[in-house]
Amino acid sequence: MQSVFKTYNRFPFEITKGDGVTLFDDTGKKYLDLTSGIGVCNLGYNNKKVKQAVSDQLDKVWHTSNLYESHLQENVAELLIQGMDKKVYFCNSGTEANEAALKLARKATGKTKILAFDHSFHGRSYGALSLTGNDKIKEGFGPFLPDIYFETYNSADALNKIDSSFAAVILEIIQGEGGIVVGDYTWLHEVEKKCHQNNVLLIIDEVQTGIGRTGKLFAYEHYNLDPDIVTIAKGLANGIPVGAMIGKNALADFFGPGSHGSTFGGNPLAMSAACAVLDTLDEAFLDDVQQKASFLWYFLEKEISSLDSVDSISGKGLMIGIHLNQSVPVNQVITQLHEVGILTLSSRGNTLRLLPPLIIMSSELLEGVKKIKEVLQNETVSL
Ligand SMILES: Cc1ncc(COP(=O)(O)O)c(C=O)c1O
User: Fold this and answer.
1) Which residues define the annotated binding site?
2) Which of 41, 185, 309, 382 is deepest in the core (most CB within 10 A)?
3) Atom of ligand 1 nearest to the CA of 176
4) Which residues is 231 bridged to in the sheet?
5) Nearest to 155 by CA among 195, 118, 199, 192
6) Could you read off the pLDDT of 242-259 as tens digits, one per residue?
7) Which amino acids does the record list as binding pyridoxal 5'-phosphate (predicted)?
8) Ligand 1, pocket-test mutation among 130, 172, 208, most atoms within 8 A of CB
9) Cβ-contact 243, 266 below 8 angstroms
10) Residue with CA nearest ligand 1 atom 7
């Protein structure tokens, strides 16, 4: 590729076709996908229901504007808030959802200070990047937004830091780009308690963890948390660009007409896809994800965790980080897995990240584990 900015390190092949959990490259080579396109195509590729919904909508109208009523937006919003006293703002990406959250938090509280976490990832616009705890990807782009503070995730220092001078705390339940770091149950509750005691809004970024990834619609449900704002994107429309911010109704007056907006936000194609996705993610579907995840975790523990090349495994549901020994570079492993027809991802700290489509069958998960084991067993480890 010559004419496109090289903002991505790309592998030297193109994915040209997909069906279910199977992808094909431009040479016809077949892959078992354990990435979902970085947690997006949770219902797999060429999903019939999503495709039909988008195709039906294409025949009606694929763009109007936000100057008119939209029953599709209302439907998706209702499916997201599930009867709770909340409202939804629609946009086009996770970055935009966090941007909206940041703006709403500052306007609603009249305060500017935000607490975020080291190794977090919230996106790459100035607002979202300002909230992101990764100096490497911020290099050369400063200055960033003022009044953003960082603390160590899961730390007591973070709890001590939260006081009434803050507008909001923003966190991921599992840090995805940050190396699949799972939030501690007690710590998350303490954060929420300190937020509520000090009139600080709790923003939970569910862009990667949400839409069934961990076996619940939102990962915070495992923890019975009560966030003021939740941001989502990725899996919401199974690959049609979309983002959303869900906020408590008490915040609604601060996001009134003219306060925020987006030309494409809540686009009819994205909304029709999102309806099909959310309609699919019922209790039975999510229970099935949890069962498959238990099966996968059993085999990860049994087959992978004791390998010399593996230090530890972390994650929840179908969001998994296999932390490799430093002498086994993750990108080398990913390339070797390509050769045997498996697509995987990396994450911070030499982590092999798995985000398989949620529709994957147990037998396919087992096939993936076996191939990963074969590749990892052949690695030379210097201990
Ligand atoms: C937790 C989290 N927040 C925000 C984003 C940014 O989302 P997008 O790339 O859709 O802007 C990502 C993307 O990986 C993410 O993982």
Assistant:
1) 94-95, 121, 124, 205-208, 262-263
2) 41
3) 16
4) 205, 245
5) 118
6) 999 999 999 999 999 999
7) 94-95, 121, 205-208, 263
8) 208
9) no
10) 94
| C-alpha distances out from residue 103 to 93, 129, 164, 190, Å | 16, 14, 18, 25
Q: Which residues are annotated as a binding site for pyridoxal 5'-phosphate?
A: 94-95, 121, 205-208, 263
Determine the Cα angle at 72 with ends 226 and 90, to 5°.
Answer: 50
Protein residues with CB under 6 Å of any ligand 1 atom:
93-95, 98, 121-123, 172, 176-177, 205, 207-208, 233
Residue 20 is given by DSSP the state B
Task: Determine phi and psi for 31, rounding to 5 degrees.
Answer: -130, 145
The alpha carbon of 379 and the centre of ligand 1 are apart by a number of angstroms equal to 32
Q: Could you give the domains of the chain?
A: 15-33+283-377 (3.90.1150.10), 48-280 (3.40.640.10)
Task: Please state, in angstroms and rounded to a whole number, the distance separating the CA atoms of residues 17 and 356.
Answer: 17
The answer, yes or no, to whether residue 184 has pLDDT greater than 80, is: yes
- The residue to mutate among 207, 220, 319, having the most atoms of ligand 1 within 8 angstroms of its beta carbon, is 207
Indicate which atom in ligand 1 lies nearest the CA of residue 93: 10
The residue nearest atom 4 of ligand 1, judged by CA position, is 122
Contact between residue 241 and residue 314 where contact means Cβ atoms under 8 Å apart: no
Rounded to whole angstroms, the Cα distance separating 377 from 370 reads: 10
The pLDDT score that the predictor gives to residue 383 is: 67
Q: Which atom number of ligand 1 is nearest to the Cα of residue 175?
A: 1
Evaluate whether 211 touches 217 at the Cβ level (below 8 Å): yes
The 10s digit of each residue's pLDDT in 9-23 is: 999 999 999 999 999
